Amino acid sequence: MAEAKPRIRLDKKEVRKGETVDVKTLVQHVMETGFRKDASGNPIPRMIINTFTCELNGKFVFGCNLESAVSANPFIEFKFKPQESGTLKFTWIDDEGVRIEATETITVT
Asked: pTM above the 0.85 mark?
């Protein structure tokens, strides 16, 4: 899989404590289900992102397990209320253990 830089969008990069932030992520990945066949009739092996996590300064914020029903280039959106400034770390892990990581900074006033 050719790795591309994930796209991360925070609706606010500077917030007041207790304010909600909307986070949107998009990562390029084929998300092959394992149910399709190639032109020769051979099954195409499953290759999906199965885990997504987001941490703020090493503390868990959001995570989910993905299944083969998720489309290629998965888009994930969630909201959270940051309690401190720091670095958000986003991690996607696929069936082969390949990790795609990205970071974004947020400031809490």
From this structure: yes
